[in-house]
Amino acid sequence: MNVLQGIILGLIQGLTEFLPVSSSGHLVLGQKWFGLTEPALFFDISVHMGTLGAVLVVFFPDIRQLVSAFFRVVFTRDTETGWVERIRRDEYAFLVWLIMIGSVPTALIGLFLKRFEHLLFSSLLLVGCMLIVTGFLLWVSRFIRPVPEKEGRVTVKRAILVGIVQGLAVIPGISRSGATIVAGTAMGIERSLAARFSFLLSIPAILGAQLLGIRDLAASGGTVDMAIICGTIAAFLSGWCALVVLLNIVKAGRFYLFAPYCWFVGALAILAAVI
Hints:
Number of domains: 1
Number of helices: 13
Radius of gyration: 19 Å
Low-confidence stretches: none
Mean pLDDT: 85
Order of helices and strands: HHHHHHHHHHHHH
Structural class: mainly alpha
Strand content: under 5%
């Protein structure tokens, strides 16, 4: 992979990570287009870290509050109330708890699917089929009735279910943002909150995947080259722009507009796989 290819793939990752069209699926298609037959797993994880940087920038106020709430609950010495009661009373501490709970099924599913990563990230047919599925999920979202913010809160049960969906989104072609936000709103979470929880929940998942990637890279003796560095920077910048656009799209309830695109690209991928 050369630097130009790395930049193009980074731009693809950044734009498609947040727009509900599956970044992993587009990375597979991009690698096939450039004739890159190696798994390039560490490149995939690195550009995901670039888009994670965009999440950290956009949601910095929330993240600061989450970190503060965590240390406040853990290190505050209050003999009158236990840590469970303190979590219930603190909005951000409870959100930390929900993110931790939702991350458990994501990690379990991700570790299981990691065994099949060479199959998952090399099949155009699989990517095409999953893009078709993503398109149907996005189309169905137009029929989900919006709920008031006071009623559409994240609960423990909803956090677990969104975490399961996020774990399944490891499969290329399934949009992580699209699937988790649609699942959240379908379960009764208010639209903007569903998007906010989706992206905050992605932080530990991406960090965990990055740690596994670094371990695998060290074991294989791989190196970080200029293509990876440039691709990661491109993913960060394009991801920042795409995330701002995505949040406005979610607020307007127009996820379904991306369904035809997913169907079109999915159909092309299937044709390319069978011809």
